[in-house]
Amino acid sequence: MDALVLGIGNEIKRDDVIGLEIVEALEARLDRPAVAFETMNSGRLLLIDELSGHDRVCIVDSIVTEGGEPGDWYAFDPQAVEPDRESGGLATHNVGLGTLTTLGEAMGESMPAITIYAIEVADPFEYGEGMTDPVREAVPELIEEIGDEIERELAADDRQNAVGRS
């Protein structure tokens, strides 16, 4: 298995730094050649070639939803949350990750399974240093969840490869 953990955020915005911080912690925990770690500034268009070639991609970012409380976190498949015209949700230039994956497959690219992990924030645009308390308190649980999930998948892949060699 070849995995990519991608943190999206902005270092100068308080809670929007969350994706960058979590990826840094996961990189320290998951020191395996099969897992790549990248960070990117919010607002940059994800390109098909950045995602293709990996078996698994975990994207970590902040999110604002109706009814969510800062510090709540979610894990979901991008196909389930394609943007609509009014919201532009989870999209850059109105191309959602689900659409991007479908487009990549249509172009003959090997597209990964993608899971988005998002932590609810009150204001992703607030400038400043240090996350707000509810968001900071949610970080360890999400690091554990993502790390455990990747470790389970790596272990399953190792077992499958061992069976294939015997």
TrEMBL record:
Coiled-coil portions:
none
A molecular function (GO) held by this record is: enzyme activator activity
**UniProt-listed InterPro entries:** Pept_HybD-like_dom_sf, Peptidase_A31
Can the keyword Hydrolase be found in this entry's annotation? yes
- Keyword annotations from UniProtKB, A to Z: Aspartyl protease, Hydrolase, Protease
Offer one example of a GO biological process linked to this entry: protein processing
Give the Pfam families listed for this entry: HycI (PF01750)
> Could you list the residue ranges that cross the membrane?
none
Under PANTHER family, the record lists: HYDROGENASE 1 MATURATION PROTEASE (PTHR30302), HYDROGENASE 2 MATURATION PROTEASE (PTHR30302:SF1)
Q: Which family does it belong to?
A: Belongs to the peptidase A31 family.
What's the name of the protein? Ni,Fe-hydrogenase maturation factor
Lineage of this protein's species? Archaea, Methanobacteriati, Methanobacteriota, Stenosarchaea group, Halobacteria
